[in-house]
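User: Here's a protein and a ligand (NAP). What would the complex look like?
Assistant: Let me lay out the input and then the predicted complex.
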Amino acid sequence: MLGTPGQLGGDLVDEGTRRGHEMIGRTQWECDITDSAAVERAVAEVQPDAVINGAAWTQVDAAEEHEAEAEAVNATGAGYVAAACASAGIRCCHVSTDYVFDGTATAPIPEDAVPLPRSAYGRTKWHGEVAVREQCPDHLIVRTSWLYGRQGPNFVITMLRLASERPELRVVADQHGAPTWTGHLAPAMLRLLEGGPAGTYHLTNSGVTTWYDFAVAIISARGLPARVVPITTAEYPLSAERPAYSVLDNRAWRELGEPPLPDWHEGLRSYLAGLEPSEPS
Ligand SMILES: NC(=O)c1ccc[n+]([C@@H]2O[C@H](COP(=O)([O-])OP(=O)(O)OC[C@H]3O[C@@H](n4cnc5c(N)ncnc54)[C@H](OP(=O)(O)O)[C@@H]3O)[C@@H](O)[C@H]2O)c1
């Protein structure tokens, strides 16, 4: 597992261990994926049955100003990991994002929809997918969305912190997506890794919401008094453009006969139940 601990990386290591796998994690300092020799060395030393690449540049807005650095990790580095897997004859599991799409869809987006990223982050993640497909035939590319887990940083943790500091939060209500808890995503990814056919998969919690409704659910679940006010994307300008609609149809997963991942409300409930009552402080 590359790119540990990370939000998703931590849950993948724990879930894999629970399922009886020997999970070996490498942090950025132990294996920087932008260094092809370091990646090859790590694979040669560990001799794994598969590699999960959870390493990524995930600062979406900073990527606008630092696209070359983001590209080095999300695309070039991803290609190094895939090439090392192909040389070792093992499976490469790569994580991608709803940001590879342009956000103009009006119905859940299937795996074979044409990507058209509108942000630097989205472009680098798309280039990473291309590199993985080219370099390693035995690949799993898992696109997910609105991810949260562990100690973050993520939207849930941010809303809880802001709600403890302010009487009112203004949250965007015109972007639609599927919040996804790493605790539900990790077992599905492991299941694919253990025997699913190679290819591209969408894996998200079920259902659809907006950031506004998600914030309301978070704050009311904790009984916090802060008021949430819906605003438009135009009222909250950020460096990187966000997809207006990025619900991913988990079609390939369902076609394997697998049950849909739980509804996002259930993901949120489970995540909040696992956080210390005082978090974040
Ligand atoms: N967060 C979301 O909403 C979201 C949505 C859809 C898809 N995804 C994708 O899901 C995956 C996991 O996301 P996440 O939120 O769990 O990310 P995260 O918490 O930011 O974790 C990313 C990990 O990658 C490591 N890393 C960064 N540069 C590296 C390098 N050059 N070599 C090795 N490791 C490096 C980071 O280490 P440091 O902490 O030391 O920098 C961190 O441990 C990513 O591929 C992301 O693109 C995320």
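Summary: The chain is about 40% helix and 15% strand.
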